[in-house]
Write a structure and sequence with these properties.
It is a single chain. The chain has 317 residues and is mostly helical. The protein has a domain at 222-311. Helices cover 62% and strands 0% of the residues. The chain has helices at 6-25, 35-49, 72-88, 92-101, 104-114, 126-138, 142-165, 173-176, 183-193, 199-204, 206-216, 229-236, 257-264, 266-272, 274-285, 295-299, 302-314. Helix 2 (35-49) runs antiparallel to helix 3 and helix 2 packs across helix 17. The chain is globular and about 45 Å long. The N and C termini lie far apart (51 Å).
Length: 317
C-alpha cells in the first residue's frame, strides 16, 4: 500500500473541507439567530395539527390529512409552515413526519375530494391559495415534483380562473378585501411560487392590481380584517411600505383578527429592514398571549403568519 505523505494528506483534507463547506452553502438555510424562534413556533404548530376539537366548519376535506387544527385552511398552512421549516432548518425528523402525512395516496384522495363537483367552491380562494404554496414547497423535493405537478397545476389554474373573473363590483368585495375572500391575498400567495407553466397568466393579472388599489383606497378598517392591505400591496408590487409598529393591543375574541393584520405588516419589513423586523418579531414573541396561549383565538394560525416573515427572508430573490 503506498504511503501518503503528511503534507499531501493535510492539503487533501483542506480541499475536502472547503468543498464540503461550499456544498453546504448551496443549501438554503435559516440564520442561527432564528433557530430559537423556530424552536418556539414548531411545537405550537405541531400541537395544533393533533387537535380535532374545537373545529370550525363541517368539512375536513378528505379527512386524511387536514383533519386537525381549527379549520381546514389552518391545517393546510400549518403543514406548509412545518414542511418548509424542516427543509430550511434541516430537521430530518420533522421532514419525515410531514412527508408521511402528505403521502402520494393521501394527496390523491385530497385532490379527488377538492375537484369533485359539489366541492369545487370549498375553501376557494383562501384555503386553496395556501394549498398551492404547500404543493410548491412539496415540489422542492425532487423525488416528489413529478408526482405533485398535475395537482399543483390544477389548483393554480383554478385560482387563476377565480382571480381573472372575480368581480370587484360585488357587494361583498369591500368586506372581503382583507379577509378570507381577499383577491389580493390569493394573488400574493400565487406570486410566491407559481409553476413555470402558469407564469404568463399570473403576470397578466397585474393589470387588475391598480383597479383593486383604487377601490380599496378609502376603505375603512373592518373588525374582521386579518390582513394589512398596504403591506400586501407593497409585496405584490415589490415596493417599499411605510412601516408603523404593529398595534397588537389586547387580543379578545371579537378582535383576534387584529393579530394577523399586525403580523402581516411585518412581512415587507422582513425584506426591506431585517433588523427592524427582528426587533418587532421578538416583541411579539415575548407576548405569548398573542400567538401561543389560546388555541381558539391565536395559536391555530398566528405562528404560521409569524413564520411567513422568516420564510420570505430565505426565498431566492
Amino acid at each position: 500500500m503506498p504511503r501518503i505523505r503528511k503534507g499531501c494528506f493535510l492539503t487533501s483534507m483542506k480541499a475536502f473541507i472547503s468543498l464540503f463547506r461550499l456544498a453546504l452553502s448551496a443549501f438554503t438555510t435559516v440564520p442561527t439567530s432564528h433557530l430559537a424562534t423556530i424552536a418556539a413556533l414548531r411545537p405550537v404548530i405541531l400541537e395544533a395539527l393533533t387537535r380535532t376539537e374545537p373545529h370550525c366548519g363541517d368539512s375536513t376535506g378528505s379527512g386524511l390529512i387536514f383533519i386537525g387544527n381549527y379549520d381546514w385552511h389552518s391545517s393546510v398552512h400549518g403543514h406548509w409552515a412545518l414542511l418548509s421549516m424542516a427543509r430550511l432548518s434541516h430537521d430530518a425528523s420533522l421532514e419525515r413526519q410531514m412527508l408521511t402525512r402528505l403521502s402520494p395516496e393521501n394527496l390523491r384522495q385530497e385532490r379527488e375530494f377538492l375537484f369533485h363537483e359539489p366541492n369545487l367552491d370549498f375553501e376557494l380562494p383562501y384555503g386553496r391559495a395556501w394549498l398551492s404554496l404547500l404543493l410548491a414547497e412539496l415540489s422542492e423535493r425532487k423525488e416528489r415534483a413529478e408526482e405533485i405537478a398535475p395537482f399543483r397545476a390544477q389548483v393554480e389554474e383554478q385560482l387563476l380562473d377565480w382571480l381573472e373573473t372575480h368581480s370587484f363590483d360585488s357587494s361583498w368585495f369591500q368586506r372581503a378585501a382583507a379577509s378570507h375572500d381577499s383577491w389580493l391575498f390569493a394573488l400574493f400567495l400565487l406570486q410566491l411560487n407559481i409553476s413555470s407553466g402558469n407564469r404568463e397568466r399570473l403576470k397578466a393579472l397585474q393589470s387588475r392590481v391598480e383597479d383593486f388599489k383604487r377601490r380599496v383606497e378609502n376603505r375603512p378598517i373592518d373588525g374582521y380584517d386579518f390582513l394589512h392591505l398596504p403591506s400586501l400591496l407593497a409585496l405584490v408590487e415589490d415596493a417599499q411600505c411605510d412601516f408603523t409598529s404593529p398595534r397588537m393591543g389586547t387580543v379578545e375574541m371579537q378582535n383576534c383578527h387584529n393579530a394577523g393584520a399586525a403580523v402581516t405588516q411585518l412581512w415587507p419589513i422582513a425584506l426591506s429592514d431585517p433588523n427592524q423586523f427582528e426587533r418587532e418579531l421578538q416583541a411579539i414573541m415575548s407576548r405569548p398571549e398573542l400567538w401561543r396561549d389560546d388555541f381558539h383565538m391565536v395559536s391555530h394560525w398566528v405562528p404560521q403568519f409569524l413564520w411567513m416573515g422568516l420564510w420570505l427572508q430565505q426565498r431566492p430573490s
